[in-house]
Amino acid sequence: MAPPTNQELNEKREKNCVTVTVERKYYKVGNTWIKRSLRPSEWQKQNGFMHVPLFNTERILNEGECLEFLAKHTDIPLPRLIACFEDDSAAYLITEYVDGVGMNELDADGQAAVAAELQRHMQTLKGLTSDTWGGPSGVVLPPHRIIGKLNGRPLRMLPREKSDLVFCHNDLSMNNVIVDEKTFKIKAIIDWEYAGFFSPEFERPFYQRAGPSIALRDELDDTGALMDIISEQSEYTPMSMRTLIK
């Protein structure tokens, strides 16, 4: 059987399913928001090729662990975690639904007000330090902008001699900041799939402009520099890392 297209899956959405992307299904049931990874039978054909989500279940499970960790150790506004688990080849993240608008939907003055609050929360994250790379469970999921360079291989990073790794969101675009459109107060920072303890260079303030968490147009592309850090700090030999980067 041919793999489904995204249009086909969206046309066949079940009750309460809001949308299907090439990697996720999203549901809203009352005041509850559900995100789950796609099962292999739901992987889709895109531009003539099968799109295989990298670290499909691991990313959602990591997000649940990060939400739990941050709720215990910070006052950063987050969706309230209800449950996070794996079942039948899919990972589920269940949170309280956060009503609001994306930072990207505000005018320039509103975005400036939100950015000022975001900077305070970023300082809070930088205050969380560790000598161990990755999320609270130890899984290392680097940012989307470089994860594709790993060819699906998990990272095994060497521990640091001191606790100089800081907690990074790693996907902090305007779309991932939910705000009150009247007060401009942040209601929740969402999508912590790639979060964890990394060297400070991994966190980029993508929320300072509209668009995804990758370098655009004339912006500095830091993917090579980040891969160099991984090469130096991972258990892979330099030769094996060069093979991964190609």
UniProtKB/TrEMBL annotation:
Pfam families: Choline_kinase. CDD domains: APH_ChoK_like. Signal peptide: none annotated. It comes from the Eukaryota. This is Aminoglycoside phosphotransferase domain-containing protein. It comes from Fusarium oxysporum f. sp. raphani 54005.
